[in-house]
Batch of 3 targets.
Target 1
Amino acid sequence: MDAVAETFSFALSVTAPIFLTLLVGYGLARVKLLSDSFVDDASKLVFLVTLPALLFFNIFGSDARLGDEWPLLLAGLIGTVLTVPLAWVFARPLEYGDRSAFIQGAFRGNLGIIGLAWAANAYGPHGLAQAALLMAVITIFYNVAAVSLFAVYSQKARFSWKKLGVDILRNPLIVAIVLALIAKGVGLKLPQMIVQTGDYLASVTLPLALLCIGASLDLSMLRRSSFGAFVASGFKLFAVPLVLLGVGFLFQLDGQAMAILFLLAATPTASASFIMARALGGNSQLAANIIAISTLFSIVTASLGLALLKVYLP
């Protein structure tokens, strides 16, 4: 009995602080202590400065190496690719114009903030470095798949593959990860004052980003959510982790790698899915509903899943 309690306590210690910080952000926004303009500016700061700093200095200073992590990265990529056609099957009963938002909401997780935060809480700097490498690989696929979906299902979408490639190469998160790997590979030595400055910037990333996500949530949308939004959220929180864990099992990943794979797979739908749906002519209301539902219930599904993994893959 004590072992069971300890296992669930570990799982909650990973997920609950993240969820509570989201609620604090939500509450501060409701009492007007976090304005829309602050959230917009802070979100840009996180994406362009502090999160790249977190990724760069964590990977640069960790013992995680790209060559050692290829089974985890390949399992994550293959599993994510497999979820897209499965989500497409579930989207078939929906109206044609709603399918892009449904499919993207069903497979695109919030890896950069919630996924990294869960990994850091569970396994410290090494787990965060593993998650960052996995995030880079999956994020590239996310962007390609999402834009392709809206090109197929939306009459308003206008894009070029060249522009998509440039956007991926200029993504600050991917650039930071690549630079960190290069710096590690050539044995670069950074002055301590640079490292300490990077640590200062990195330390504000997750709390600030989580507060912004919480402030952006509109839980009133739950009352207006459609059946499709609940199905997409269920797919994201149950089917996606199961598929990725199945692939990880085939790759014979160790317990920690399986847990990292699960934590990133079990994240709620990314806010970027709403932004892209609105920009490319998809059903942005459906996208917003999926984000709200999956965020609310992810604390339960992620905690239970991590506890089960801890029992069966210690």
Target 2
Amino acid sequence: MILPIIAYGDPVLRKKGIEISEDYPKLKEFIANMWETMYEAAGVGLAAPQVNKAIRLFIIDASPFADDENISEEENAQLAEMKMVFINPKIIAEEGEEWAFNEGCLSIPDVREDVFRKPTITIEYLDENFKSHTKTFEGIGARVIQHEYDHIEGILFTDKLSSLKKRLIKGKLTNISKGKVHADYRMHFPLMKKGR
């Protein structure tokens, strides 16, 4: 089932997600719905708060970034295989010199900005079978994880912009929260007038 994606301005996007256990109600169904929602919206990642659940869960499929001529064959191969579920994740290390990459977000349609992040992360997480993992990711894969991880911490990529950039996009963000934006996927807007 395709779920509506929560738009910028909704308080759920600012909540720090809570950890969940294996007996979380209808978890497998929820994860399946998240995959369907993400693919319908042509996203590469989706966090539970973006579909109105303030829990520590996100999914990623970085394969659309594979076959990029600007990155190594090794990284392309890693990205092609990077379809993963992260439950109760904890980033335990972020290393290297920050680099800029143009990011967007399904909850903030039509806004893309360069965001600086560290290139290498190590993360502990549970997969969809609640098996524990500790892995290190680099480059674009690490960035996709960092972006989704921020969501379960109540952080949006726009929070990482300079104050000048924030001022420049303020009007766009206000319009998104009011539903004055076009997205090719189902969305829920917090400030839309009822009955519209």
Target 3
Amino acid sequence: MPSTTVQKPMQARAKARRDMIIARTEDILARDGIEAITTTAVAREAGIPVGSIYRYFKDRNDIIGLLHQVAYDDVVGTVANALEQMEPGQGFRKTHEQLIRVFWRAARSHPTFRDLTRWANAHNSLWDVTPGPESHLDELVRQTLAVAGVQLPEGREQVMLRTAVTTLSVLIDQALEEDDDAEADALIDEITTLLDRYFE
């Protein structure tokens, strides 16, 4: 999702205020849910005038979008750490399946990821919420292929990566919505099978 932040504060005091706005928004999210987040509620929670929020954010959606990016980066960071521990050359299917399960568990256990992802999916087009080239997910797919020892055909690498990242992003979102672990597990297995055959 592209950043829509109005101002990137450079001074320590301004950065501290922006961080405080984000922290108070997280407090509202944890306590009252995503629908309770408004610029007025955030200002009240932070003890600052509403106008101060607009120095750093366009609107409530801008703040929530940033929170979603932070949550997403947390989950992807967990997967990246798992990837670093993996044995190279064990094949794409095994490597990929293990990483999807790490992603799924990290996303399900994260305190805000699921709610923020639902919000992002409901308020943006598929294009806006699908990670693109040079995203964290794109980089993870590249690293997974490298660890698995898979080389993509020359001339098709970029489009194959884009297809894989889009497919992975959409299907993982569906797996996250499954409350039945067995159903989620079956969907993860299908995601792995689909991409394994795609990269054969």
